[in-house]
Structures are given as C-alpha cells and as structure tokens.
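Hi U.,

Before I forget, here's the chain from the pilot set. I'm dumping it here mostly so it's searchable later in email.
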Amino acid sequence: MAYIPLARVQPGMVPQSDVTTADGRVLFKAGTELTTNDIDMMQSAAIGSINIAADNNPSSSADFSTPARSLTIEQLAVLSRLFAYNNLHEASIQQLHAICAEQIKAARDHGS
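Structure:
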C-alpha cells in the first residue's frame, strides 16, 4: 500500500482505504474503481493523496520517483493546501507539485 499524490492518481486505480474529506465525509469506499469524474471530485474536495495498493499503483515502478512519496502526512497536508485550487492533471502543475515536494523534503532533511 502507498499514499500517492492526487496528481498521480489515474482512472481505474482502486483506493485501498476509504477516501474521506477533511471533515470525515466518505467520498469513496475502499475498493471503488476511480473514474476521471471521481478524481475531479477529490481535487475539488482538496484531497492531497490517497492510499492505493502497491499492485494497483503504476507510480511504484522504477521509472517514477517523486519526493512526495517520502513526505510525512503533515508535509503532504501542507503540499495539498498549496495546490488545493490548481488543476493537478496539468503537466506544468504536476511539475510544480514535484518541485515543492522536493523543497519540503530538503528542508526536512536539513532540519529547517
């Protein structure tokens, strides 16, 4: 199982645990196959990352390594707030997301 940023979630993926809003409302039950509309709904609800089974996570392959994967839940929450109103399906926004994740990770690793 792995938490992946919403920007990397693709239609057809299946969350391993319930996807909930900040106030605890369940958007999708674990095991629901996600659609493009579902991903848009999560973006609107400012969901930053979701729990995807490793065997259902194409980002777990060797060609994908994003610093966001090594961030804590608190750091992911900060990153989610920064990108809450952006279209995380746009390549340029995904690049900015990755850069911010790198900076947050670097700050943590250097004790800042």
